[in-house]
Amino acid sequence: MTHYTTRPHKLITVIIPKGVDTELVNQLVDEVGINSVNVNYARGLGRITPLRHRGIGETTEKAIITVLIEEERADEVFEFIFYKADVNHPHGGLMFQQSLLANTLFKIPEIQEE
Amino acid sequence: MSKNNREMVVLTDVSLITTIVQRGKANDIVKAAQEAGAQGASIHYSHGQGVRERLGILGLAVEAEKETIHIIVSSDQANKVFESIYRAGDFDTPGMGFMWVSPVEKAATFVPEDILEKFARDDSRNPFNARLDET
To answer: Which residues, in sequence order, are CB contacts of A11 under 8 Å at separation 6+?
Structure first.
């Protein structure tokens, strides 16, 4: 049984304000059918932050979402996230895509509904 | 040049610098990166193992909790920012942490209209070399 694949996959990382993440993850699962999504939280520090007026070095809470996706669907999912997470506005966040050399597959075990 | 909210500007020629340092040192690292031209960073906590365990009692001086810093920079700036972080983080000292640069195929974020116009005027420096209109 093969536990990993060399079939080309991409890793999409999205850094967005905390609060936007839950809805985005739900949409990725329900609308795109992806289950290889991880979320962790971070503090963001930038030259121009929403709280800059409060002083230099002010940080904001961010969510970092990583999505593993097959190469063929990467562009479609990248665009989906861009619009759904509303990245295209000031302080909307940042996203990027990287290629991977190898990765494992993630399948949720089939659980019988009660 | 007009731009509406439904237009995606894709940036290429960008790199991701990932740095892992002892907890409490991330702000100095980000400051050094910004001085070298980086725009910002995101920082999260993590737990590390390595030199701390090998140092025995002296390992207490090494913070087990780490801060992981992600910085996206243009590929042109990557070496300069990398070097600046290296110096600020004292990475030539064992146990201080480590860092790497990884390639990014493409990135997207909000780009102000005036910046787009500035780069459109000088296409040779244009990092926004692909534009995907809403389909």
So the answer is: A66, A67, A68, A69, A97, A98, A99, A100
Q: B29, B18 in Cβ contact below 8 A? A: no
pTM of the model: 0.81
Q: Which residue has the higher pLDDT, B59 or A37?
A: A37
> CA-CA distance, A35 to A29, in Å (whole number)?
6
**The complex's ipTM?**
0.82
- Residue among A10, A66, A77, A88 with most chain B CBs within 10 A, to mutate: A88
Give B61 or B3, the one with higher predicted confidence: B61
DSSP-derived secondary structure letter, B1: -
The CATH label, of 3.40.50.300, 3.30.750.24, 3.30.70.120, 3.40.50.620, for the domain at B14-104 is 3.30.70.120
Query: Which residues of A are less than 8 Å from B27 in CB distance?
Result: 45, 57
